[in-house]
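Z., the sequence and structure:
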Amino acid sequence: MSHQPTPDDTNSPPVDLLLKALPAHVPAGLGGVARLRLVLVPAQPSAELLRHAVAHLAPVLPLLTDLGDRFAAEGHSLALVGGPVRDAFLGRTSPDLDFTTSARPDEIEPILARWGGATWDMGREFGTIGARRGDTIVEVTTHRADAYDGVTRKPVVAFGDSLEDDLKRRDFTMNAMALRLPDLTFVDPYAGLPDLTDRTLRTPGPPEVSFGDDPLRMMRAARFVAQLGVVPAPEVLAAMTEMATTLEIVSAERIRDELTKLLLADHPRAGLEVLVHTGLAAYVLPELPALKLEMDEHHRHKDVYEHSLTVLDQAIALEGGDLPGPDLVLRLAALLHDIGKPATRRFEPGGGVSFHHHEVVGAKLTAKRLRALRFDKDTIKAVSRLVELQLRFHGYGEGQWSDSAVRRYVTDAGALLSRLHRLTRADCTTRNVRKARRLAATYDDLEARIGRLLEAEELGKVRPELDGNEIAKVLGITPGPVLGRAYTYLLSVRLDEGPIGPDVARERLLAWWAEQPESR
């Protein structure tokens, strides 16, 4: 059964009990803290929760009460709503301050102009005005009672006068809590605080209605699982599964943004598992559930889906140092590194299974999927290149690579080298402890060799020992494809042999040129 109390459900603890719960370092006169009271809460929150919430709101309490007083003086109600209230109870500092008010946009603007001076139209037709004072940015939106046409996902805006009605149209109960201003009355008509305490994700109304209003909320549910460690209520999961196809009407850009937030969360695996379990992944990253390859009766290959999620976990654990996390490129590469396997799986006559060139196929599939999600070109290029390079290390053996092979490894990775290090290490998910230690030691050796070569030769800046102008002068040619080929040849010489000096490079270039048809 869905737990959906009505606005009439109240259980207000005594004011003196709540005041004892306030942190001692917050003066009672600081923006009216002494007036804090709790209403419309079906279950009394613990004193510890209140203490955390007030402690995290204390730095902005003067601002909250100031704005509340300004709106009240003009005859309008104002409330802090959504994420900032939720995060206060979680002990998190919210980067945004979102307010809702009974005032209409034309009434909001002059009040904010007097408060901060700079205002801008965040979406007047949707009732939102933004303002800045110093480093503080606020957004104030008129109470809404939106409806959606169910086809284009465009809201039909209807302004309202009721805070409780405004809260009901929000995505989840934990985001449907508010603080009325300036008196700091806590308002929770849909039991968001008990749900937050229980780490349960529910919707203020029936989830079918909420997700029908905006299907992207289903993606947001998976994101909150990854960010906040909540668990969707059974009815929420059922609605997400039943309505997964409606995600098709949401733009690729909005889906990309939610997926990015999910991947950058502390525990993206949990959110991804929700996407796959509910079928939403088929409309976001269809390559991910496709990794659940049907196992043959002899179990000749590991579960690629579970392996990929484990690689993601291990890549995240390796973030830090010269690659501070969260790193979207590394996480995308870890998640997608094996998506070429379903298309390349072959059962060999001797009983084995192969995935020949899955990294090449996977790189192409990765670029195609990220383009469909409207990722930027740099991200697409970096992630697909990492997928392509993922197996390069396995040719290293027990350290048989020549210095020229190590140079090529570094040069091919380029700016992605630190990510490639982490992706390669994360890709080891074997349960064979001895094998895992051997692979780690071998990669340690490769990294040490790279370090020595980088220090000796500055491989990150490797260039041919003759630049483009010098090559053109030696060969008597003009810029064009032939010059490009000559440059590539000298670069290969540099990588294979290390520094040989400009004179020797000139001799090699002329010898190469004598064999080219253009020289005749």
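The CA atoms of residues 118 and 132 lie 6 Å apart. The longest strand covers residues 136-142.

Let me know what you think.
H.
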